[in-house]
Amino acid sequence: MRHSLAVFLLLSLVACSSDPAKDDNLTADQLYAQAKESMADDNYEKAVKQFEKLQSRFPYGRYAQQAQMEIAYAYYKHSEPAPALVALDNFVKMYPNSAHLDYVYYLKGLINFNENINSLFGTLFKQDPSERDPAALRDSFAAFKELVTRFPDSKYTPDARLRMQYLLTTLANGEVHVASYYLRRGAYIAAANRAKGVLIDYPQTPQTLEALQIMVQAYDAMGMNDLRDDAKRVLALNVGKNGALPEAKESPKNPSPWWQFWN
Fold first, then answer.
1. What DSSP string describes 31-98?
2. Which of 10, 199, 229, 250 makes the best surface tag, with the fewest CB within 10 Å?
């Protein structure tokens, strides 16, 4: 009998300690401290719920913006990129003039970057990042571009620029992979057009050399001798004495490629 009573009292104490009504009496500072403690314990699911509770009770409080960023970061740390990106997009809509936008764009770029460059699937199967769906890579680049364009002095900008250069090379590699595939399949027009796209969209990447070589082969296979010879001449001009490509120069008459952000 005493044992049963002890168990009953213990259960009652546990129930009281987790009583939602008690949480409703907590201040914003207390709710925020609880959520941060959950983050420190790597309990990200719990942290998200706590930050959401903080937002619902104090939507215009001092922690409103911080809670939204913490929610995105918690999802990211919990390997849930989709809701993390949604949370970041919502932040931009709710706080378009926030002083924390540089961090938001950086985290958005980083989430897409890590998911598509360092994914477990790619690591296990040694998949080249350029062979994956480029949509998220472009999204990553777009977020980093927004960061470096709007916040050139941000502490996150130097790292974002480095990642952008890597993304350009990866995206250019992807286009070359596709062009090579078309060439092997005998789809010469598609191969030439895809390779030409590398010259237009990624002129400052090393992949322009391989793209020109594909164009030469594709035009030759189609008997388009004039276009083949033009591609050969451009190829010869772009290969230095040591076989290296000089820095590409874009004509000012041409529109800037989609990724261009520097002057």
1. HHHHHHHHHHTT-HHHHHHHHHHHHHH-TTSTTHHHHHHHHHHHHHHTT-HHHHHHHHHHHHHH-TT-
2. 10
